[in-house]
Amino acid sequence: MAHHEIETQWMGKMQFNALVNGHTIIMDAPERVGGDDYGPIPKPLVLTALSGCTAMDVVALLRKAGIEMKDFSVTVTGEITKQHPIEYISMHLVYSFSGIEAYKTQALEAVMTSQEKLCGVSSMMKKIMPVTWDVVYNNECIFSNKMQELALV
Fold first, then answer.
1. Which of 118, 108, 107, 104 has its CA nearest to residue 54?
2. Residue 124: pLDDT above 90?
3. Confidence band (pLDDT; 50, 70, 90) for 147?
4. To bridge 90 with a disulfide, which of 51, 54, 79, 119 should be the other Cys (CB 3.0-4.6 Å)?
5. Alpha carbon separation from 116 to 13, 53, 111, 120, 121 (Å, rounded)
6. Residue 8: its pLDDT value, please?
7. C-alpha atoms less than 13 angstroms from C-alpha of 140 in its C-beta half-sphere
8. What is the rounded average pLDDT of the residues 38-48?
9. Kindly report the CA angle at 74 between 136 and 92, in degrees rounded to 5?
C-alpha cells in the first residue's frame, strides 16, 4: 500500500513549516493569539486540499477531451462548529467556468466524474459530513445539489 508522509517543524512562536513533497507550507497564527501571521492557520488547508484535488481532476478530464476553458476556479466554504473542538460540519464547493457555450455539458460531466469517482479528498470528507456543490458556467448556475443533500441530513 502506498502512503504519503509530511514533516512539520516548529519554527518558534506559533509558526510551523510543513514539508510536503519537497515544498514548504508555512502555517502560523494571527498576532492576536501569539503568532506573526506569516501563513494560514492549518484548518483551511483542508478546504485547500479539497479544492485542489477536484480542480485538478476537472482540468485533467477536460484536457483529455481536448477542451480548454477561458477561466476556471473553485471556491470552497466550510461551516464550522462554535464549540471546541472547532471542526468542519459541512463543505460547499462552487465550480465557476468561463468558456465556449458548447462545452457546458462537458464541464458539468467533468465535475460530476470528479465528485462521484475520482476525488479522494471529497470521498473522505463525504464520509463524515455533507459535501455539496454548484456548477456555474458563464455566470449561470447549471447544477446545484445543495438543497438535495441538506434534506438528507
1. 118
2. yes
3. confident
4. 79
5. 42, 13, 8, 10, 11
6. 98
7. 8
8. 98
9. 85
